[in-house]
Design goal:
alpha/beta; six-stranded parallel beta sheet; 20 strands; elongated
Length: 405
């Protein structure tokens, strides 16, 4: 029998127990032995739960038990999750986690600690919920150079923006609906301001380029400034506004950012709606690969946690397969101003103004919207160059967004 412990018994923790119990035969067949949840660490008690008798309130009980070979951390927040994870690795126990904040902030240290103690530290569930993305980037795409990663990494904001587009609704109203449906927390700041997506793109950037950026220092713009007029204008352009997390390498430095983008229908992410996530990985050999599915939720996320548990307990994962990350220094980080892409600008004016804007932005794409407004999609350029070009026209844009196409 293989004994494990669960740290945290909230949505994901209880979901992990549910997956293990309901799929007990499948789990045992995959591992070659029965998997037993010996302990559950939580501040609360769960007397009505089938595993309620496994609850302990002191991490030391788990650390001191030599039978426990693996710990699944699903506590949320950086502390004490980081300290408990470090202690478990030092005790020679494998650790899996869904905690994006810990991985994005301390991942380089924890991976080094795991290697030092010859155990594994896996975190598939920290990005994309139940979507397999981390393991494919490490294994299936290992023969490729990863050029970029772009994606919808937050289901709450995608739900809100989808509803705003389809129903012509205001942000505040759709946020309330997301909260009523349980998609958004009472305090939705981490979602709507892009902080959640920032932590996730930092993890994906580290996987792609080996440098762990500070999630608190990357350029992050949320969706609170997006109005129903913006989503309607995007719709008339044939696209949709999405909160996109993006990373790529520019002149040897790693760029990562989170921002609303106009996503054109030529990009498959344009069609990822509702609470779903879509992650597009650009490579030098395969081209673009799309990973799509439920990016959050109890059982989708728990299924990713259990997949990591099974990977370790079956012997398929070893400390030799752990990625090597370095904490990024100032010289490793590209300025967001260096991002070169097409950009959409909306102006008010006459046909002569449209011609001036198209010439300045080297554009072949423009469309008249309504009430004397027109949109111009620039050639590929940096925001600095685009803004300088616009200044020469004397026009003032009423909306500007980077374009993903």
């Amino acid at each position: 029998m293989l004994h494990i412990a669960l740290l945290g018994f909230g949505v994901v923790g209880s979901g992990t127990a549910e997956v293990i119990l309901q799929n007990q035969k499948q789990v045992a067949a995959y591992c070659g032995d029965e998997v037993n949840v010996k302990y559950i660490l939580d501040l609360r008690d769960f007397p009505e739960h089938p595993l309620g008798d496994r609850v302990v309130h002191d991490i030391q009980v788990i650390l001191d038990d030599p039978e426990v070979v693996l710990v699944a951390e699903m506590m949320g927040g950086a502390h004490p999750a980081y300290e408990f994870t470090s202690a478990a690795l030092k005790a020679g126990k494998h650790v899996v986690t869904s905690n994006k904040e810990v991985v994005a902030t301390f991942g380089a240290q924890l991976l080094d600690l795991a290697r030092e103690h010859h155990v594994s530290y896996l975190f598939e569930a920290s990005v994309g919920g139940g979507i397999p993305i981390i393991r494919p980037m490490q294994t299936d795409l290992a023969s490729n150079e990863i050029l970029s990663v772009s994606g919808i990494l937050n289901g709450t904001t995608n739900f809100i923006l989808t509803k705003m587009k389809n129903e012509g609704a205001a942000f505040a109203d759709m946020l309330k609906l997301a909260q009523q449906k349980g998609y958004a927390e009472a305090n939705p700041t981490a979602d709507v301001e892009g902080l959640d997506a920032a932590r996730k793109i930092v993890i994906l950037a580290a996987l792609a380029f080996g440098k762990l950026l500070d999630p608190n220092k990357i350029s992050t713009t949320g969706i609170t400034g997006i109005t129903e007029e913006h989503t309607a204008l995007a719709d008339k352009l044939g696209g949709a506004i999405k909160l996109i997390a993006h990373t790529e390498k520019i002149d040897g430095r790693v760029l990562a950012l989170v921002s609303p983008f106009l996503v054109l229908p030529t990009n498959p992410i344009c069609h990822v709606d509702d609470v779903y996530n879509g992650i597009l990985v650009g490579t030098n050999m395969l081209g673009r690969a799309l990973f799509y599915g439920a990016g959050a939720g109890k059982l989708p996320t728990a299924s990713a946690v259990v997949a990591d548990i099974l990977d370790i307990l079956s012997g398929r994962s070893t400390d030799r397969r752990l990625p090597h990350w370095q904490v990024a220094g100032a010289d490793d980080v590209a300025d967001v101003a260096s991002l070169s892409c097409r950009r959409v600008y909306v102006f008010e004016g006459c046909p002569r103004c449209e011609a001036k804007a198209k010439t300045a932005l080297a554009s072949e794409d423009s469309v008249w919207l309504c009430d004397g407004k027109f949109a111009v999609i620039s050639a590929k350029m940096t925001a600095t160059d685009a803004d300088a070009a616009i200044q020469t026209t004397g026009l003032c844009p009423i909306l500007s967004l980077p374009v993903l196409d």
